């Protein structure tokens, strides 16, 4: 199978870009997704996180759906968790007294528009990350969108010369609880968070083993692919007694796609779950859902992974897994 734009030819989009120094830092497509950095008037949320959302044409704004955190792992003999940096959680050295690493673009504020030989337009935004003091990682990335794939943002990851040696340069989608993602779509099964963490009764993160490359869906072009979705037919209809956590957007499939030339043998999918919302004791309606959703693999400079948001159902994106689909609730 292949993943293409789900937008019809009659729905021609336009680029969304900051038009001045005081504009919200949001880029994207009016017919697809938007991404941004912390800024006044931009998509809300903590520091240290790239915002990912969809464009609301009626209100001419980006609707926040998830965050992407930067979590580099340096080389060493200690357990992985002790070698990681956390862009959302670490204290800033550039902005004393604030948590979350500073993120900024090193190119034009509006990004750069290019055109491929095929006529497809691209929007490219280089993003730098404040040095991680916990492990000495000094990393940066390039975000790019294509006009023919408006529901995706690709991220290519790099390190600076003065960085500690990088073992893995992980990007993680951190806020699955907002959309109550409970179904993880793999090559030969659908994993339900409520069954996976059925005995979990704490207020922290529920963990489990990662899923290796062999469990990932493979697309016709060789890309490795994995999806997460809500179990509910209409997540916005579920009431949540909290001003932040009530989901009010359309139902979306969220996915990671790794192009074949960037697949390493140790590529794997990792998720964790929560029974209560982050920094709350409020139980998530319907039970445990996935929070972090990511792919991990050995670092190679320029390595690319693609994050997508689409209204297309998982069974349409990957018809080979349709026979494993559970009933919608």
Protein architecture, described:
It contains 2 helices and 21 strands. It is mainly beta. The chain folds into 2 domains: 9-174, no CATH class; 176-329, no CATH class. Strands 6, 7, 8, 9, 10, 12, 13, 16, 17, 18 and 21 form an 11-stranded antiparallel β-sheet that branches.
Q: State the end-to-end distance.
A: 27 Å
Q: pLDDT under 50 segments (min length 5)?
A: 1-11
What is the average per-residue confidence, as pLDDT, rounded to a whole number?
A: 94
- The Rg value, from CA coordinates, equals 19 Å
Structural class: mainly beta
How many distinct folded domains?
Answer: 2
**Mind describing the biggest β-sheet?**
11 strands, antiparallel
Topology, please?
Blueprint: E1 15-16, E2 26-29, E3 33-36, E4 49-56, E5 61-74, E6 103-105, E7 112-115, E8 121-129, E9 139-146, E10 149-159, E11 166-173, E12 181-185, E13 190-192, H1 193-196, E14 205-206, E15 211-212, E16 217-218, E17 224-230, E18 253-258, E19 268-274, E20 289-296, E21 304-310, H2 314-317
Antiparallel strand pairs: 1-2, 2-3, 3-4, 4-5, 5-11, 6-8, 7-8, 8-9, 9-10, 10-21, 11-20, 12-13, 12-17, 14-19, 15-19, 16-17, 17-18, 18-21, 19-20
